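Two records follow; treat each independently.
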Amino acid sequence: MTTLTVKDLLPADGTKGTLVGRVWLPRVSGPAVVAVRSDGVFDVTSRFPTVSALCEEDNPAKALGATKGERIGDLDAIVANTAPDGRDPNKPWLLAPVDLQTLKAAGVTFAISMLERVIEERAKGNPASAEAIRKEVTRLIGDDLSKLKPGSDQAMHLKQVLIDQNAWSQYLEVGIGPDAEVFTKAPTMSSVGTGMDAGLHPKSTWNNPEPELVLFVSSRGKIVGGALGNDVNLRDFEGRSALLLSKAKDNNASCSIGPLLRLFDDTFTLDDARKLDISLNVTGTDGFVLDGHSSISKISRDPTDLVAQTIGKIHQYPDGFVLFLGTMFAPVKDRDAPGQGFTHKRDDIVTIAAPELGKLINRMRTSEECEPWTFGIGALMKNLAQRKLI
């Protein structure tokens, strides 16, 4: 991992937005909630012991703006000390900007890409069969699949057509049916941030990054901001059985969020988040380059609908949650041999970026090679109590 700079981190408008991060402070052997501002990085942990607590404010951006905090250093130096290679353990470094929130993820949220993948899969390489299915889909809903609303009468008609064409699957059920797929991505506090190694199961031979928007949601169900995320996915494990989803998704360092949380304010709103274009770049030591993107504007379920299906009378999250919104990106570029598709190799550098949210950069390693996760909820509570912050 090369040394990161501020240019590898900040949004296109710099520090004009309300930016929140977490920084490891060696002098207290624990994390600090920080505000990233034009004149430095400020520790606000005495006012907000956790990012979760900040997100519980009626107006988190306003509350953070009214908190001066203690300056702990320049962003440049903290960012440069974040990558595990060459890190000085006696100086601060960045962490993922999430702590007590539950880590949730939504899947199969882009019908525009999902339907085409399933059509091709069910057609089994027969172009004529695939074209017949496409024509029937077009007759029912037109040629803009992004307008298809899951659970609608139109979607249910499409479901029956696909069943008749022997093209139905469990993925389509959650993609265009009334119920969204929402699952727990990883344990609370297990996320890695930008500049850190992201993990792959050592037995996986077919895997890929998933560039996504991550919403931060309070315990009341209010969406307060967003960050970038990599919902690292093992295609071979999940492909063998949907019941292996947890093993495909939850491994050490397999959940990456960052670089910072951008709270909603006058410079960045939920409507802005709905229009995000997220880019992906994978660069390997073998010279391989893969580029992709995901446009939130083409999502099939509105972010508010996905949040509403996650929290409510049926399920509560007292410390709030973050929600990966899914991706329209599906890697098809061959890496080694024709027809073999894409899979990660050791030391791939993955960059997920959006002008409004900055860049999330990770190096890919097996989960056992990544830094072990040792600082959990109990350690955080003990550390904050020792510092007299709770």
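The next record belongs to a different protein.
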Amino acid sequence: MVLEQDVNTAGRVRRVALASAIGTTIEWYDYFAYSTATALVFNKLFFPSLSPSSGTLAAFATLGVGFVARPLGGIVWGHFGDRVGRKAMLVASLLLMGLATAGVGALPTYHQAGVIAPILLVVLRVLQGISAGGEWGGAALMAVEHAPEGKRGRYGSFSQIGVPAGLILAQLVFFLVNNSLSPDQFRSWGWRIPFLVSLVLVAVGLVIRLRVEESPVFAKLRSTGERSKLPIVEVLRARPKQVLAAAVSFIANTALGYIFFAYLLSYGTSVLKLSSTTMLVVVIVGSVVWLASIVAAAIWSDSVGRKPVYLAGSVLLVVWSIPFFLLVDTAKPWLLIVAVVVLNIGLGATYGPQSALFSELFESRFRYSGSSFAYAVGAVLGGGFAPLIAASLQSSTGTSLSVSLYMVGVGVLSLLAVLAFPRKPLVAVTGE
């Protein structure tokens, strides 16, 4: 009887982990489809009256607008995630993201609607940002709060791999569409396909998420009546240092991540004059390494602790920032692959244990709010305008060294925040 119960529990945990991975993959596919289109075509479609470099900067600025909305999403989803439940917020965030993404695919271009086109683009990007602000926290907590003791890193990685998996899926769809159509066809209507595909993916994701059980930790909070009335206020009062350290620790990962998968596409095609096909392949290879390193780092963190793994990854990101662009600037595909492979090992080490680490920083009654807000603020400060900053530095200085120095700067900043983390979990996660 006990054995049967253990088997049922293990099966439930695996289903939740799988649902977390699939749901976040779909959610981030939507988010990264926008990033990919920004690097490839949005400057021509929505800002054609600007020069090529200015159009690229304007397109990357719309990318950053979505990040500005993420803390708002973190507060809203976090509040209701701590009050109503983790599962309900995951369903709501996925639905909002899917509708916003499909809306981008149906937008008129500047030539069709004039200035209203980029305005609508920004509005839909804001909705994407609000959705993304609460998606990660819910997916992370569902996986971690269901996980058995000693395996929180492993199970928490399922929410983390959704990011590179979504990126890979978005890149593959753009790769197939781009290589199936002529350049004129792709610019005319083919770019819409990856966004409209989102409707099918979201329907699949909703079915999966509606079938999983609520987090047992939240179920206990609900039954005991210990839910926080204003979780974002309480977490900022009770754990301000943890919120700050968590947010700053994420700056380098998200900044260098967006330089890798958003700015590098634009840099490779516009500055190095490499084909978009070549650059998409480079990004896909790097993303596969990122996914694998996330899982490896998360499992490693269950053995040695979250902080040592974070430190190793943070140091690698700082050290590799200058060699990264030295290799990229050779314009040799195999050296580009070496550059992104090493970079993504560092990204994986600073992302794999994140779900477990952030969960272990905050008490359950305000955990969704604390985790989501810290994650969203780190994303704004890091990835929000990293492609725009990188493009501006390259354009104004004429050298990628300026971008590398920017990468070193944010890497050192996050490294200092990681040093402030406790060596052991600050609070319990399960069984509270």
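Discussion point: The chain has 22 helices and no strands. How would you locate this feature using only the token line?
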